[in-house]
Structures are given as C-alpha cells and as structure tokens.
Amino acid sequence: MTQIGKTLKRLRALKGFTQEHMAEKLHMTTDGYAQIERDVGNPNLPKIEKIAKIFDMTTVEFLDFCENGATFYISGDAQQNNNTDSKLSMYYLFGKNGHEILLAELEKAELTIQHKDELLEQKQNEINALKEIIELLKTK
Questions:
Q1: Across all residues in the chain, what is the average pLDDT?
Q2: Residue 36 backbone dihedrals phi, psi, to 5 degrees
Q3: What pLDDT is recorded for position 89?
Q4: Which of 40, 115, 132, 136 has a Cα at 20 to 30 A from 60?
C-alpha cells in the first residue's frame, strides 16, 4: 500500500517546507493538506502530479518513492558548504533501485580516478625524462 502521507511529510521536512507552504502551492487549505499527510485524505491524480512537481519529480518517481522508499545521497558539495539552504538542495532521492544507481555512479567515479592516476603517472614519467635530458645537456 502506498504511503503518500508519510512520504510527503518526510519530503516536506527534508526541503524545509511548512504545511502552510505546501497547502498554498497545492491551492488547498492547511487542514486539507494536513489530512493528506496523516493519510486521512487521499489526493486525486492531478493533486499527486502537483505534489511531484513541487519536489522536482515525475509522478511515477513520486509514487515509486512512496511505495518503495528511497536511497538518500548527500553530495560532497553539500558537506563542504556551510550554507544551510544549499545543503538541502544537495540531497538526492532515488526510488527502490537507488542503490544500483549509486553503485553505477561509484564505479564511474572509480574509473575516473583510475584514469586520473594513470595520467599523473604518465606526466611524472615525462617530467623525469625531461630532467634526464636537462642533466645530459648540462654535462655537454
């Protein structure tokens, strides 16, 4: 069973939105919105579409998130930045396959680091070769 209310409350808190803010965005009363969060009222599809847009998700992503939970990821930029607002914007939410997405991103990052290390080694070899050439030229 989909837990729209529970999910909606978590997302709202994560973004730092108030119930009043959400109610205003959805063109409804605060009490009506609070009923959705308590799973007392069930929003219709157009309302769910609006909710998903508020959180920059597609309707399918939002419903998947409600049904299956999510994997949370905090980017390195957010951890280094002292601005609270930007920290909130650096949270990423993934549906049930979120761990697979993160593993793919991790593998991509590891390959990038490996390539960088190879380039650094090549650069160091070139520097060493140039130093040898300079020494040879100095001795002549």
A1: 80
A2: -65, -45
A3: 43
A4: 40
Q: What is the pTM of this model?
A: 0.51
pLDDT band at 104 (very low <50, low <70, confident <90, very high): confident
Which helix or strand (DSSP H or E) is residue 36 part of?
helix 30-37
Q: Is 1.10.260.40 the CATH number for 4-96?
A: yes
Distance CA 62, CA 64 (A): 5
Between CA 128 and CA 120 the distance in angstroms is 12
Please report where in the chains the tokens 């989909």 appear, as a residue: 2
**Half-sphere exposure of residue 27, counting CA atoms within 13 Å on the CB side?**
4
Q: Which two tokens stand for residue 62?
A: 């939002």
Counting every residue written for the chain, the total comes to 140
Amino acid at 94: F
